[in-house]
Amino acid sequence: MQRLFPEGYFFSNVLYGLALTDLAAGGHGDPGKARAEAARVLGRLASPAGTAVFERGLSPEYGVFYAGWSLLLRAQSAALAARGGGDLAVPAGWPPSASGGGLPGGERAGLAAADRMAEAVRAALDAGASPFLPAYPGRS
User: Fold this and answer.
1) For residue 59, with 0-12 CB atoms within 10 Å meaning exposed, 13-18 middle and 19 or more buried, which class applies?
2) In 3-state terms, what secondary structure has residue 136?
3) How wide is the angle at C-alpha 113 spanned by C-alphas 123 and 75, nearest 5°?
4) CB 53 within 8 A of CB 66
5) Arithmetic mean of pLDDT over the chain
6) Residues 108/84/14/121 CA torsion (nearest 10 deg)
7) CB-hemisphere CA count at 13 Å for 38?
8) 79-128 pLDDT, tens per residue?
9) Residue 11, H or E segment
10) Residue 139: phi, psi to the nearest 5?
11) pTM
């Protein structure tokens, strides 16, 4: 099965993070704990194991499958933070940004990371001749 769907490690992790944040958003879990686990999941997604089957040189980086699902988890984490669920998830590999006004450091960095990823997707859509962005090397 892994040969047919090599993104299984990534997808299993991102779905786990999305399930936790969705449960917490619905009042069925602790938002702070869900956000902390989302940070760990995002760290796994950004790890060599999480990016191994994706090509870094695609636009957006690692392709639209990687960028889209990662961005969705960041957005759900941000929504929990907006409800008082703690700082935005910031895994290793996502350095803080100087922007963000008076937000706490972790939240400012999480928003900056989400903004960078969303901007990369938008730029790829604007630059492409097709709305179907590449997801995998040699495939779409």
Assistant:
1) middle
2) strand
3) 90
4) no
5) 80
6) -40
7) 35
8) 888 776 555 544 444 433 333 333 445 666 777 888 888 999 999 999 97
9) helix 8-25
10) -135, 165
11) 0.78
